[in-house]
Structure to design on (161 residues):
């Protein structure tokens, strides 16, 4: 895995009608630390995996490092994320050579649906044409970063669809 990710994030205009036919997984993630410079340390339980992730930087290209944890390690750290968590179901949708990760949020973020697409190069990211079911590109809108959703909830101007 590359130490950098190049990713765009969109608000979902309309959930694809056949969404349940795509592979999906439940995700619980919580934040241990978030700093003003864009660095974050998060825990994630996804499927049978437990992962500690450190991300740094801002914008479309960020540094990312992941370390797999045991269930016991995860469970010791998880209580430290109280009040800084995100719950969602993620669908993986293949489209035009890319994988769109559709996230449907739960709990306090109910009603929010976003989609992320990772790219190998900046040129791929710049030339990507999103399908019609995606809406506003919120890649650079800090309010829609998962860490900020976990800390502050839905942006005030968010309209549920």
């Amino acid at each position: 895995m590359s130490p950098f990710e190049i990713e765009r994030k969109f608000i979902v205009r309309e959930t694809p009608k056949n969404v349940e036919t795509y592979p999906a997984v439940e995700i619980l993630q919580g934040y241990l630390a978030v700093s003003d410079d864009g660095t974050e340390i998060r825990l994630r339980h996804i499927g049978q995996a437990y992962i500690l992730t450190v991300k740094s930087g801002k914008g479309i290209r960020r540094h990312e490092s992941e370390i797999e944890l045991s269930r016991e390690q995860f469970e010791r750290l998880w209580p430290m994320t109280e009040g800084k968590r995100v719950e969602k179901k993620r669908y993986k949708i293949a489209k035009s050579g890319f994988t769109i990760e559709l996230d449907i949020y739960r709990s306090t973020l109910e009603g929010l649906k976003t989609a992320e697409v990772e790219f190998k190069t900046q040129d791929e990211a710049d030339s990507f044409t999103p399908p019609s079911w995606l809406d506003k590109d919120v890649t650079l809108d800090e309010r829609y970063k998962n860490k900020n959703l976990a800390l502050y909830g839905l942006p005030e101007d968010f309209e549920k669809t």
Summary: The chain has three helices and nine strands. Residues 59 and 144 are 12 Å apart (CA to CA). The chain has a mean pLDDT of 93. The radius of gyration is 15 Å.
